[in-house]
Write a structure and sequence with these properties.
Blueprint: E1 12-13, H1 28-38, H2 44-47, E2 54-58, H3 65-75, E3 84-88, H4 96-113, H5 123-137, E4 141-148, H6 154-159, E5 167-173, E6 183-186, H7 192-199, H8 208-220, H9 225-234, H10 240-248, H11 272-275, H12 286-297, E7 302-303, H13 304-314, H14 322-335, E8 339-341, E9 348-351, H15 353-362, H16 366-380, H17 417-431, H18 446-466, H19 477-504, H20 513-518, H21 523-532, H22 534-548
Parallel strand pairs: 1-3, 2-5, 2-6, 3-4, 4-5
Antiparallel strand pairs: 7-9, 8-9
Helix pairs in contact: 1-3, 4-5, 7-8, 8-10, 12-14, 12-15, 12-16, 13-14, 13-16, 13-19, 16-19, 17-18, 17-22, 18-19, 19-22
Length: 560
């Protein structure tokens, strides 16, 4: 770059200075994107913006954000003769308040190195003294804040900017929720060509089969640089075919065998396989459950609706809360950098294949993961029985011949005893509740009706657990249960439970609950929607009758 190539080395504070890494490859385009973002303010008429002086590198763990920032600082260092100020916050990615305390300590170290005496210890005061010192030097400098945690306020983010207009601020973070802070440079996985170079840096494939296995390995880990570097080390004791078999084998995880290389900015002794997870997976919480579902579907994306359908079917979530819980979970996962938005589908997300692998291997609640797998398949694949008319039913309590047990089950593969018993129990619950049984006008309690329908969720979940072990035949019951809860009950309860709850909250103490319900202006609408459930719920009861062989519907009930 002309005369800048002969410029002296720029100082790095606080020590030690970063020296780069032999692991780094490619990323030249990203370096120029960073440089453009940091200097966009110099040409506001061309850039159509007066901003600039800031950029943020975003991406999941292990993509090389810290290495890219280091390489940029080393390659473009002569542009910043005032020095590079590097603040490392990686150890506090789960503790935002502690990260700000560490940042203040590192700023204080820089002041001491520059022999500037501060009159106070608060972070704004420290930055003010440093701003005066940098202004007196009158040299452009680079201000790097590496490993910024999610969860910082806008005020805290403002303190992470360089304290003087001479400073250009570069931030690295996993979080996708700081878009307003500075221009975003999203870290993508390595291309097949760059990933192949990393993987084969220790050993060259010896034939076409070995070469094909190497390329498959690059795609297996989604071009993840740190994973490719770990796999490259394994080629010292085996060819690429062997390494790929070890990657997918059960037993010890080959991606959890070594700490990250020095200079990456990551915490010491951090196994890659578990570091990819936003937090350990064990119990039932919305963020963990959404992550489980996305891992099961990977590489296909899942929509908000599909996530809500499965969560409302398995519990412990109430159907009217599932929409808000899924939205909050998505936001939390965006903060950890775990999610990738599907650009071609609205409100749909997926995750990196390596993160999906970590979920499969390191989720301690494997039973819940299996429950999700079954429900997700029944949610995504429509049940054929929903599109097939059920033959005419004989009189109530009459056993059906085997040929009529289910129009979707092939001859000789009749449902097992567990599934038939569960279908019978669910039919009993369905035909004896409000929904199939009409609620007379101006009689009964709307709250009791909603509670009765909600209890079907609990019953359905218990029955699905009962048939979870019956795998010898193609199960039809989960598909019926999914339509019962997600297609009919959940939309109804999501609409009417909060509405009735809001009306109940303003009941005067001298008015009975039933009388208060009758005065409700939306009472007639709720009763009309409740009556509208009768036909689809009766149709599901008929399918359950076909499945178990016993029809409990009275002859007067509406039928297809």
């Amino acid at each position: 770059m002309g005369d800048a190539a002969d410029a002296p080395f720029v100082p790095w504070l606080p020590a030690p200075a970063r020296t780069g890494s032999l692991r780094f490859t490619g990323r030249l385009a990203e370096q120029w994107r960073i440089h453009t973002a940091l200097h966009r303010h110099r040409a506001p008429l061309i850039a159509q913006s007066g901003g600039g002086r800031g950029a943020q590198l975003r991406g999941m763990p292990g993509l090389g954000k810290s290495l890219l920032a280091q390489e940029y600082a080393l390659h473009f260092g002569p542009v910043f003769p005032g020095g590079v100020f590097w603040f490392d916050l990686h150890q506090y990615e789960q503790a935002p308040s502690e990260a700000m305390e560490s940042y203040a300590e590192q700023v204080s170290t820089v002041l001491a190195a520059l022999r500037v005496t501060a009159s106070g210890s608060s972070l704004p005061r420290l930055l003010s003294h440093l701003a005066v010192a940098l202004g007196e030097r009158n040299l452009p400098c680079l201000w790097v804040v590496d490993g910024v945690p999610d969860g910082l306020t806008s005020g805290q983010l403002g303190l992470l900017r360089g304290p003087h207009l001479l400073t250009a601020t570069l931030m690295t973070t996993r979080s996708l929720r700081y878009a307003a802070f500075a221009e975003c440079v999203d870290m993508a996985p390595l291309s097949d060509a760059d990933g192949f170079r990393v993987l084969t840096s220790r050993r060259v494939p010896h034939d076409e089969l070995d070469r094909a296995a190497a390329l498959a390995l690059v795609r297996d880990v989604g071009g993840h640089p740190e994973a490719l570097d770990l796999l490259a080390d394994l080629t010292a004791t085996g060819d690429f075919v062997d390494v790929r078999n070890r990657l997918h084998a059960y037993g010890p995880d080959v991606l959890a065998t070594r700490p990250p290389a020095a200079g990456t900015g990551a915490p010491a002794h951090r196994p890659l396989a578990t570091a990819l997870l936003p937090k350990p997976l064990s119990g039932a919480d919305p963020a963990g459950d959404v992550l489980r579902l996305l891992a099961l579907a990977c590489p296909a994306p899942l929509s908000q609706t599909a996530l809500e359908d499965v969560l409302s079917s398995i519990g412990p979530y109430d159907p009217w809360e599932v929409g808000a819980l899924v939205s909050e979970a998505v936001e939390a996962l965006r903060g950890s950098g775990a999610l990738r938005h599907e650009p071609l589908r609205e409100r749909s997300w997926t995750i990196h294949p390596l993160l999906a692998r970590a979920v499969h291997r390191h989720d301690t609640n494997v039973a819940r993961q299996e429950d999700f797998r079954r429900l997700l398949l029944h949610t995504l694949v429509p049940d054929a029985s929903a599109r097939t008319s059920v033959p005419g039913r004989p009189a109530a309590t009459t056993s059906l011949p085997e040929a009529q047990l289910s129009p979707t089950v092939a001859p000789g593969t009749r449902p097992g005893p567990l599934e038939r018993a569960a279908a019978f129990d669910l039919q009993v619950e369905l035909v004896t509740r409000v929904g199939v049984q009409p609620l007379p006008g101006d009689h009964g309690s709307l709250r009791e009706a909603l509670s009765s329908l909600y209890s079907l969720f609990v019953t359905t979940r218990e029955l699905l657990h009962r048939v979870a072990t019956e795998t010898a035949t193609p199960l039809t019951l989960p598909g019926i249960a999914a339509r019962l809860t997600n297609t009919h009950l959940r939309p109804f309860l999501t609409t009417w439970h909060p509405a009735l709850q809001e009306h109940e909250a303003v009941r005067p103490p001298d008015v009975s609950p039933v009388e208060h319900e009758r005065r409700w202006k939306r009472s007639a609408d709720l009763r009309a929607d409740l009556a509208g459930l009768r036909e689809p719920l009766t149709s599901l009861a008929e399918e359950l009758a076909a499945l178990c062989g016993v029809d409990l519907l009275p002859p007067s009930s509406p039928r297809e």
